[in-house]
Amino acid sequence: MDPSSVRIIMQLVEIAIAQNFQHIIIESDSWSAINFIKEDCPASHPVRPLLEDINILASILQHVVWNHTLREANVVADSFAKKG
Questions:
Q1: Strand (E) or helix (H) holding 84
Q2: Domain residues for 28?
Q3: Residue 75 and which of 28, 30, 37, 67 are 20 to 30 A apart at CA?
């Protein structure tokens, strides 16, 4: 799994909190990242601390939906990823 996917998700949750959103939908083309957030990951995995932080931050919000989407369907995120 690409750790940058997890970092981007963390930034999105931080933005949602800063904007006082309470109900959000996070979509990512990283199946592993979404699955690890929803189901947990091995304690030894390098992104584990970030995932724990994401879950702590998400608990501030009233409702978060975590969705996997195909890269082809996620045109906006794909264009940002290509720009770096």
A1: none
A2: 3-10+19-83
A3: 37
Q: Is the pTM of this model over 0.85?
A: no
Please name the residues in contact with 71: beta carbons below 8 A apart, sequence gap of 6 or more: 29, 78
CA distances from 3 to 20, 22, 29, 47 (A): 26, 26, 13, 6
Written as one string, the DSSP assignment of 9-73 is HHHHHHHHHHTT--EEEEEES-HHHHHHHHH---TTSTTHHHHHHHHHHHTTSSEEEEEE--GGG
**What confidence tens digit (pLDDT) does each residue in 4-52 have?**
999 999 999 999 999 999 999 999 989 999 999 999 899 999 999 999 9
Q: Is residue 57 predicted with pLDDT exceeding 70?
A: yes
Could you give the number of structural domains in the chain?
1
